[in-house]
Amino acid sequence: MQEQWTEIYEKHVWQPFTQMKLAHVPYKIDRAEGVYLYEGDRPIVDAVGSWWVNLFGHCNARINDAVIAQLQTLEHAMYAGMT
Predict the structure, then answer these.
(1) Domain limits of the chain?
(2) What is the tens place of the pLDDT at every residue in 30-56?
(3) 3-state secondary structure of 45
(4) In terms of pTM, does the model score above 0.70?
């Protein structure tokens, strides 16, 4: 399975900010919580500072609850003459 996944990845995925000829095969992340990303049961510290969720931790319950509440109220409105 890993070989098939790697072949598909190398053929179809472009990683921004990466020198593709020198890049290692990336981790296959299954889930995340707090400061950790998980590849299966193996925790990996997500040390990419200040990108998106990293300031608050992955799967932050307070943020998740706020997002769910917003989605249950209004998930999207066309921004064309409406606000």
Answers:
(1) 26-75
(2) 999 999 999 999 999 998 866 777 789
(3) strand
(4) no
